Structure formats: structure tokens, C-alpha cells
């Protein structure tokens, strides 16, 4: 596989590339079949107020309920992006998440926002905002019932197109979050121009809490930045009480992670929301 091995290895290199290509083809076929057979489901993870533990939002996370078990998005989203299926999958998630949000609101009476991940490709579709609007209408939801998450990395490709899309979405009254914040290269001045409402601190920083001084400093800086730009803040990947404590002491309002709950299926999130709904 290594190019430095010299001439003789080109054959091996070609073979492995061919194998990789046929694996992608097969995965693409399987993805198409899975879409036809409705094998995609949405799990939900609560996002809570760090101080009170009240569920304020839930994040919709896509799962492939395949014949070989439940697969995580990291296993198929990159391929879906590559073979042009991400818009179909994205639409499917949006539809299910909106339908289920309406169901959860009706059955639990709880107040919460559903946070939905979107890829940059989706945002660049000319009719994305219109589709979003008709989806809300279809399930009788208000714009404030949902928010969209876009990764910091996705923000920096085709800046103008993305910025315009975000502005349109914001005009609808839908909140926008930057996901995996701290791992990309967005600049302060760029951030300030975007119509965003909140920042999600990437879990790689949270993982090193509470003891790693450097990561503590990074998180503190992100929280101060969010504060001065008047943005809300969520820390992702909180697994330990000590992490929750230090985040709370640094002024982080919301937390999400296995300490609170793993992502769970629809009926389980319904129970979780039911417990925290006003009596
Ligand atoms: P993300 O949006 O940053 O989502 C958070 C990920 O961290 C989820 O992985 C979640 O299960 C995981 N996680 C939550 N709490 C903890 C924790 O305490 N510890 C650890 N180690 N992990 C935790 P998941 O569900 O596998 O999703 C991976 C990524 O796939 C997501 O990262 C998101 O970028 C993408 N994704 C998920 N659903 C969709 C979707 O519908 N559309 C698009 N475009 N991307 C999606
Ligand atoms: Mg996310
Ligand atoms: Mg994230
Ligand atoms: Mg991520």
C-alpha cells in the first residue's frame, strides 16, 4: 500500500484500490436497498440544563437498522455523501424527526427543541429552505420546535452559498447550531457574520476534563467567546460527573452525553420526556 516501497508494489496498490471501489459500490447498492426497505431509524439523545438536569433539547441521530445489526452514521454517511445519496437520507431524517417530534409533543406535553444534523450538501440544495418549511407545515410544527446542526468544518466550504442558506433558514425562525466546534478552522470574524444561535463544544475537548489544563483552557475560551457573541453553549460527550461539575463552574449552560443518557429509540425518549414534563 505504501508508495515508498517502490515499483513492484504498484500491482498491490491497484488491487487494493479496485477492492475499495467495489466495496463502495456494494455499500451504495445496500444503501439504496435500505432506503427502499425503510431500514433507517432515528434515535434521540437528550440535551439537558447542566444545573437542573431538565431536558431542553433532543438530538436526532440517524441509525441504519441493517440485517447485520444497527449501524452508526460514521459507517455510512461519508459514503452517502460520496455517492450522492446524502440528500435523500437527509430528507428522510428531516421527515422522520419532524413527524416524531409532533408525536412526542402530543403524547408527553413536554416542551423541547429537536436538533437535526444537516450536511453542507443538503444546505446547498436550492429548495432546502422551502422543503424545510413545508415539512414543518406538514406536521403542524412551529419553527422554534426544531434547530439545525451543521459542523464547523462544513461551514468553511463554499462560504457564500452556506451563509446565504443559513440566513434563509434563520429568517424562517429556525435556530442554528455549530456542531463539533473547536475542530475546524472558522475565524472569529466569520462566526460573527453567521446567523447562529449556539455552539456545541466537540467531545474531544470534553473527554480530557477535568484534569487536563490545556483542554480546560480551550473550553473556557470557547465559552467566553460564545458568551461575548451572545450564543448558547452545549458541551458534547459528557461521561462523568466531574466533567459536568467543571463545565457548570465554567458557565456552560447545556450538556449532552452518556452521563445523562445514550442515544435511545423513540419510545425510550418518550419516557424520558414524559418524566420531565410539567405535572
Ligand atoms: P454529532 O452530531 O457530533 O453527534 C454526537 C455523537 O456523539 C453521536 O454519535 C453520539 O452517539 C455520540 N455521543 C453522545 N454522547 C457521547 C458520550 O458521552 N461519549 C461518546 N464517546 N460519544 C457520545 P453518532 O450517533 O454515531 O453520530 C456520529 C455523527 O454522525 C454525528 O456526530 C453527526 O455528525 C453524524 N450524523 C448523525 N445523524 C446524522 C444525520 O441525520 N445527518 C447527517 N448529515 N449527519 C448525521
Ligand atoms: Mg450533531
Ligand atoms: Mg458533535
Ligand atoms: Mg461528530
TrEMBL record:
<feature type="domain" description="EAL">
    <location>
        <begin position="24"/>
        <end position="277"/>
    </location>
</feature>
<protein>
    <submittedName>
        <fullName>Diguanylate cyclase/phosphodiesterase with PAS/PAC sensor(S)</fullName>
    </submittedName>
</protein>
